């Protein structure tokens, strides 16, 4: 297994820049997720690491070796495609053996390795089956098997669970993570699904428009996002952004929204402009009988152990997480206020979050 | 109301109408072919009798005449010969003729085979490589090149007959197998490239990428992964190329006379004594139809999937 390092990586297609000046280090044995909306450059980054695309500029290192311009076949990494790309004219066994045949292993060794991988993935009972007869989950396992028979330096996966139905996806998430731990793999995993990313990753890199915005552990990404985009992309329901027209100064601990004073963590820097946003996750808000920001109940989602209330206010819709035993009616007037001091101020000009006692 | 069938499925009555129309159409289409096959088994006299004979005494005269060269001899000469050794000699003697040797039909038929399969193979070989390149690589002016390739089909081929005739004479390609193979390949290639490019486009490039990541070069990936999946398209294209090369008449008449003459220009020249030898021509036509039929039947499974141009893909 290996460390993957990318330095100032850039990729342009004609006049479109898919990946801008990216820097990343993926540690040995790490499960690293590239997360972002479609077209953000995450797949292009992955394909450059694999050698399926060559970078316009910048360098890629596998351990100490620079591989930036090597062919895919010379890099010793495995790739799991979104649509699996299992060879349809071969059965499961031959699909698994295909990478080994190229490496001139003896027949018995190929057989042993195929069996080993098949047992690990519990597909040893379908080795003679045709690819077309397999269900999605089995195809997924065969694709993983084909990746790991070769014992490559790293696994690259491009939304490998995207085509599975949701129930199966959760199961495969767990299996994939367990497999990663069992074989001490280094995995780079691309997805647009933030829940998938949160549940599997050691670290997540959030990308948008070709840029890596933040690379951190899931809890850091969730609680301490460095920009408004990261904050809005992670979490379901998403973070609330309350706009306010007031410059934020260093050491400020309070802001005024709709005439209501809201406490904020002690700020360490000034905002660049007047138009800023207060970011609060729904679980950090509570309903109060007076002294809060007022609004009208717009909708209620019952989620079993809790409810998400959407409140219509003068500055847009705000979601608040409440206990499911609280009864509310649509159109009811309510007030809400932060329940703790975990708020983040986002600079309206730069989209960045301002450093504070909470976010340091 | 009958709710046992899905609304997408035709009713029993419309199925019956469809079957009736298909049967009528089939019969109408098959009448000329049936007539050719039957004529091949008639005697020269019954072939031209009026009213036409539908029920007749079968004879292999047509096939014997097709494969042999004969001369008419006087009765005294025939009597002086030893008795005929084979059934076909006997058949010929009964018409007051003797066999002087084999006819040219077999060699013409062989020419058709060599040129037909040769041109098909070459068209598919070049077409597959070109189609793959057009499908996968950034070829400069790709669209213009594809249009240029198609444009070679836009004029009637016979329009260039005279220049080609002169070129072939200068190059010594006239009346040679290789010359005809090159000519038919040129005509077929545009169709082959276009058809095959469609099929190649349907094969997701992830398959080759997977193979390349598994340690194979692009060329190995092409042979081990792309070609096996393109068999349907290759088979369908091969049939189109084969049918054209096999049936082509105009250039064959113009460019071949002896060495490389194919069956289509030869068959109509089978002239019997005192009239056209219809049974021999019909026999030749019947034999001529067989290879394309067999070729198509062998590749039928691929063709049926192939001519949908990959529209229905699993």
What can you see in these coordinates?
The complex is a heterodimer of chains A (360) and B (314). With 360 residues, chain A is an alpha+beta fold. Chain A has 2 domains: 225 residues, 3-Layer(aba) Sandwich (Rossmann fold); 109 residues, Beta Barrel (OB fold (Dihydrolipoamide Acetyltransferase, E2P)). In chain A, the strands form 5 sheets. In chain A, strands 6-7-8-3-9-10 form a 6-stranded mixed sheet, sandwiched between helices. A 5-stranded antiparallel sheet of chain A has the order 15-19-16-17-18, with no helix packed on it. In chain A, helix 5 links the parallel strand 7 and strand 8. In chain A, helix 2 packs across helix 3, helix 2 runs parallel beside helix 4 and helix 3 crosses helix 4. The mean pLDDT of chain A is 91. A two-stranded antiparallel ribbon of chain B has the order 1-2. In chain B, strands 3-4 form a two-stranded antiparallel ribbon. In chain B, helix 3 crosses helix 15, helix 6 runs parallel beside helix 9 and helix 9 packs antiparallel against helix 12. The relative contact order of chain B is 0.13. Chains A and B meet through strand 6 and helix 2 of A and helix 10 and helix 11 of B.
């Amino acid at each position: 297994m290996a460390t993957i390092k990318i330095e100032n990586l850039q990729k342009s297609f004609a006049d479109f820049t898919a990946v801008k000046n990216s820097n990343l280090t993926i540690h040995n044995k790490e499960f690293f997720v590239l997360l972002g909306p479609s077209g953000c450059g995450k797949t292009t980054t992955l394909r450059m690491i694999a050698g399926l695309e060559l970078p316009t500029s910048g360098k890629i290192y596998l351990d100490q070796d620079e591989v930036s311009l090597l062919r895919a076949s010379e890099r010793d990494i495995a790739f799991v495609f979104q649509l699996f790309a299992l060879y349809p004219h071969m059965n499961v066994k031959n699909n698994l053996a295909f990478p080994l045949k190229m490496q001139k292993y003896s027949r018995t060794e190929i057989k042993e390795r195929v069996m080993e991988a098949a047992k690990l993935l519990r597909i040893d009972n379908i080795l003679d089956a045709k690819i077309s007869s397999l269900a999605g989950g089995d195809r997924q396992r065969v694709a993983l098997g084909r990746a790991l028979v070769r014992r490559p330096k790293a696994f690259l996966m491009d939304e490998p669970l995207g085509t599975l139905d949701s129930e199966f996806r959760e199961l495969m998430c767990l299996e994939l993570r367990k497999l990663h731990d069992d074989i001490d793999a280094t995995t780079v995993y691309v997805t647009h699904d933030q829940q998938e990313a949160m549940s599997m990753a050691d670290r997540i890199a959030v990308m948008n428009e070709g840029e890596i915005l933040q690379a951190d552990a899931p809890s850091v990404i969730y609680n301490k996002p460095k920009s408004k985009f990261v904050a809005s992309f992670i979490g379901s329901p998403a973070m609330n952004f309350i706009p306010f027209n007031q410059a934020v100064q260093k050491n400020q601990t309070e802001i005024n929204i709709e005439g209501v004073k809201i406490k904020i963590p002690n700020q360490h820097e000034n905002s660049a402009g007047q138009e800023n946003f207060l970011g609060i996750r729904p679980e950090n808000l509570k309903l109060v009988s007076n002294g809060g920001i007022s609004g009208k109940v717009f909708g209620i989602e019952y989620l079993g152990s809790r409810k998400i209330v959407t409140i219509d206010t003068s500055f847009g819709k705000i979601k608040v997480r409440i206990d499911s035993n609280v009864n509310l009616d649509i159109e009811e007037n309510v007030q809400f206020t932060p329940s703790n001091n975990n708020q983040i101020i986002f600079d309206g000009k730069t989209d960045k979050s301002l450093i504070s006692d909470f976010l340091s | 109301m009958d709710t046992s069938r899905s609304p997408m499925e035709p009713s029993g009555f419309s199925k019956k109408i469809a079957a009736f129309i298909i049967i009528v159409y089939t019969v109408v289409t098959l009448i000329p072919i049936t007539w050719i096959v039957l004529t091949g088994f008639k005697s020269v006299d019954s072939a031209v009798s009026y009213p036409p004979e539908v029920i007749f005494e079968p004879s292999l005269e047509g096939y014997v005449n097709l494969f042999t060269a004969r001369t008419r001899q006087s009765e005294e000469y025939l009597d002086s010969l030893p008795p005929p050794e084979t059934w076909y000699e006997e058949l010929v003697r009964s018409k007051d003729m003797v066999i002087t040797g084999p006819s040219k039909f077999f060699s013409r038929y062989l020419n058709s085979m060599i040129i037909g399969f040769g041109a098909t193979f070459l068209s598919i070989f070049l077409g597959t490589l070109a189609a793959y390149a057009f499908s996968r690589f950034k070829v400069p002016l790709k669209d213009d090149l594809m249009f240029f390739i198609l444009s070679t089909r836009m004029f009637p081929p016979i329009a260039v007959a005279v220049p080609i005739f002169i070129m072939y004479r200068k190059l010594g390609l006239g009346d040679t197998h290789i010359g005809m193979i090159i000519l038919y390949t040129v005509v077929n290639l545009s169709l082959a490239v276009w058809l095959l490019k469609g099929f190649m486009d349907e094969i997701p490039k992830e398959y080759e990428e997977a193979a390349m990541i598994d340690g194979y070069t692009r060329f190995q990936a092409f042979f081990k992964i792309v070609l096996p999946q393109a068999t349907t398209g290759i088979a369908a294209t091969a049939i189109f190329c084969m049918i054209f090369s096999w049936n082509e008449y105009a250039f064959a008449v113009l460019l071949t006379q002896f060495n490389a003459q194919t069956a289509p220009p030869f068959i109509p020249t089978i002239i019997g004594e005192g009239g056209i030898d219809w049974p021999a021509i019909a026999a030749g036509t019947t034999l001529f139809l067989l290879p394309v039929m067999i070729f198509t039947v062998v590749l039928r499974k691929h063709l049926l999937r192939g001519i949908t141009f990959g529209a229905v893909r699993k």
